[in-house]
């Protein structure tokens, strides 16, 4: 059973999907730590209600940067909890050397587009503005770039003629919640073979 650390900045719906897959027995894993850079983020509330250990990442008052000291502290907290695989679930800061070095090849993220198309923020809006006929989501390994790591899994979602940013995002999230636990199981199986 793989030990997961979750980093998130928002509502935690993907963390909940992972937890639900663990609870229903479709994912052999344990969430040992949930960390957020936002003190009042719903992911921390969800995690606490589920009895999971939580913590706050101190980004020194910076709204988008992830200071090196904060990354070192985060890597230390993850290591001390025995985390084997780090899963980003709506975490809105770029990871750099302190965490990437500590967990090389053991950090994954879920992104709401069919990468390499539409990296970065509001990918579903980017897809609509580009007139895309299809969007979706991607689970990928995390590297030093923005949404540039090797793809683990993808799921396509058609863009419908009446779609708004909200309706498209909602359909993408349904697929995110389906493929993220499956991708974790795939990555975990690979780590066990190594």
Account of the 3D structure:
By secondary structure, the protein is of the alpha/beta class. The chain has a single domain (2-193), classed as Formyl transferase, N-terminal domain (Rossmann fold), CATH 3.40.50.170. 38% of the residues lie in helices and 22% in strands. It has helices at residues 13-23, 42-49, 68-80, 97-102, 123-129, 165-193, and strands at residues 2-8, 29-36, 54-56, 85-88, 107-111, 134-141, 151-158. Strand 2, helix 2 and strand 3 form a beta-alpha-beta unit. Helix 1 (13-23) packs across helix 6. The chain is globular, with a radius of gyration of 16 Å. The two termini are 15 Å apart.
Radius of gyration over all CA atoms, rounded:
16 Å
Can you count the beta strands? 7
- Cα distance spanning the termini: 15 Å
CATH architecture descriptor text: 3-Layer(aba) Sandwich
Helical fraction equals 25-40%
Q: What would CATH call the homologous superfamily?
A: Formyl transferase, N-terminal domain
Find the CATH topology: Rossmann fold
Brief summary:
38% of the residues lie in helices and 22% in strands. With 194 residues, it is an alpha/beta fold. It has a single domain (2-193), classed as Rossmann fold (3-Layer(aba) Sandwich), CATH 3.40.50.
Task: Give me the secondary-structure topology.
Blueprint: E1 2-8, H1 13-23, E2 29-36, H2 42-49, E3 54-56, H3 68-80, E4 85-88, H4 97-102, E5 107-111, H5 123-129, E6 134-141, E7 151-158, H6 165-193
Parallel strand pairs: 1-2, 1-4, 2-3, 4-5
Antiparallel strand pairs: 5-6, 6-7
